[in-house]
Design brief:
Length: 566
Amino acid sequence: MDDSPLQVLTLPTAPYPDQRPGTSGLRKKVFVFQSKRNYLQNFVQSIYSSIDLLDRQGSTMVVGGDGRYFNQTAIEIIVQMAAANGVGRLVIGHHGIMSTPAVSCVIRKYKAIGGIVLTASHNPGGREGDFGIKFNTANGGPAQDAVTNRIFQISRTIEEYAICPELRVDLATLSKQKFDLENKFKPFTVEIVDSVESYANMLRNIFDFAALKELLSGENHIKIQLDAMHGVMGPYVKRILCEELGSPANSAINCVPLQDFGGQHPDPNLTYAADLVETMRGGQYDFGAAFDGDGDRNMILGKHGFFVNPSDSVAVIAANVFSIPYFQHTGVRGYARSMPTSAALDNVARATKIELYETPTGWKFFGNLMDAGKLSLCGEESFGTGADHIREKDGLWAVLAWLSILATRKQSVEDIIKDHWQTFGRNFFTKYDYEEVDLDAAIQMMEDLELMILEKAFMGQRFAVGEKLYQVEKADNFEYTDPVDGRICRNQGLRIIFTDGSRIIYRLSGTGSMGATVRVYIDSYEKDPDKIFRDPQVMLAPLVTIALKVSQLHERTGRSGPSVIT
């Protein structure tokens, strides 16, 4: 066996112009990473080079992914390049798999300088699917704009990358592996860890596991159905919900992580988790939930398939926040939601006199508020919910939060939601996603729409649909000033706000890998007890008509309807 130190090479490369990270890192089709020479190496080197050399030397970093196709290939390259770039230790999930919430947890536990997350979240996997790479910083959360901008600038001028091509790591064995490198005084260390246990231990310190075990396996236990959608959450659900909290093994389905997610779209919504919805409609189960590919998103369902809108979900958790022991100890510092999310959380914040922050889309904005001690609980309409225990949204945390509320209140999901509406009023909310729209057409539509709504003549304009009359009170392109550091984020979404508080919002999403995704959000508050239980699509139909008429979205994009409605 050759025990000589491993060779560190510096190899030439050429830059690519398209490696600007979006709100969730760099996402492209798998074939882009596979077919473009050094495409992954360039971006990984740009990440390492963005970290000051003194901070990087001998440091600890975390690596994990959602198990999608190309995950292990990418990890091998990331490990080889980490060693060559002076990183002292890598902590990697067993088999290279680690949920995004667990990555955040492990970064914080090991006091790492950051981590690399390999995921395209809820986007499809497999050879023909998507792949993504994201850098999280020392707080465990997504890198702020200053960091991602630096990574992008480096990627545009990169000329070489460093690598130890002969280094081979065993991802299949829980172990600590050491490698001697030439011209390095200390060996490079790779730790393969059980990320489920680190994450589970964190949850034990947040929730009352005894009460949850009684709820799930006691004398009067409820029946649950959890769908991991063949993503990363399978091992976490099995270990925590089934083995530790006592829910039957068959209450967790699709729990084997697959490179192509079983050929399905790992997105926990009514469209892509339709099998779970259908199962829940049968009435056999009291509580249902689904998770996305990397485990940071969740969908909550009640008996008979009762759907909990994500905007309502975070509001209900806020209204019942002291059902969770963690908040009994820490108190509540503040609430936050992304701008497109319905104002349901605002109603709870107002009633409880707790500060409410409205941020652009992207969890990094929440992380900044958390680091400053201003925020405890937050959520996004895109099925993301979380708290200040980590710096990512957290699907399983949200499920345990809901189960804690069920254990405390001893009511069904539907009854809890309906009680909430009767107490706080209801925000009817829907989102129309138009996926893989021609990028140029989408940009032109948004530019023309902005020019129109910012004209003086648009203010006060009235729109009549049937018996409903809406008058424009305000229209703008949302701008956010961070209360922590004063940074200003512009162009975060077009808003039309009516005199009754109803909102129409248009955004171009940054989480896809091809074309553009145009998102249209409709939010309307209702406090009339005779109206709060009506069908959202019926209640919001007039505003949807206005939204499509004003934007000419179907005509401008060539689409006859949305890809997904939630």
